[in-house]
Amino acid sequence: MKYLKQFALLLGICFIAELLHYLLPLPIPSSIYGIVLLFFLLYFHIIPVVQIKETSSFLIEIMPAMFIPAAVGLINVWDLMKDKLFAYLFVIVVSTILVMAISGLVTQGLIRRKRS
C-alpha cells in the first residue's frame, strides 16, 4: 500500500504540472513544471523525502527501460536519418563534451565557493 500512496503522490504532482502547462501560456513542457514543483515541495519540506523515496528509487532503476520505445521508434525513421548520420553523431559528440565540460566547471566552482 505504501508504494501505491507514493506513486499516487507523484502522479498528483504530474497532474498539477499538466494543469500548469495547460493554463499558463508559456512554452514550457509539463515535465519541467513537474520537476520544479517537486523540487520546491521537497526543498520546503512540504513533502518529506521518505514519502516518495521507495517509488522514486524504483522509477530511477527502471528508467533505462523507458527509452526502449523511443529507440525502437528510430527504426521507423531510419531512411530519413541514414543520410545525415554523421551530422547527428557530430552534434551528439559535441553536445556531450560541452555538457560534461560545463558541468565540471560549475561543479568545481561550487566546490571552491563552498570551501571559501
Radius of gyration: 19 Å
Annotation field: number of helices: 7
**Run of helices and strands:** HHHHHHH
Shape: extended
Helicity level: over 70%
Number of domains: 2
Q: Total number of β-strand segments?
A: 0
Low-confidence stretches: none
**Largest beta-sheet characterization:** none
CA-CA gap between termini:
47 Å
Quote the beta fraction: under 5%
Q: Could you tell me the mean pLDDT?
A: 93
Alpha-beta content class: mainly alpha
Brief descriptors of the model:
single chain; 116 residues; extended; 2 domains; 80% helix; mainly alpha
Structural write-up:
The chain is mainly α. It folds into two domains: 1-66, no CATH class; 74-116. The chain has seven helices and no strands. The N and C termini lie far apart (47 Å).
Produce a short descriptive summary.
With 116 residues, the protein is mainly alpha-helical. The chain contains 7 helices and no strands. The protein has helices spanning 2-23, 30-43, 53-61, 63-66, 68-76, 78-81, 85-115.
Helices and strands, with pairings:
Layout lengths: L1 H22 L6 H14 L9 H9 L1 H4 L1 H9 L1 H4 L3 H31 L1
Helix pairs in contact: 1-2
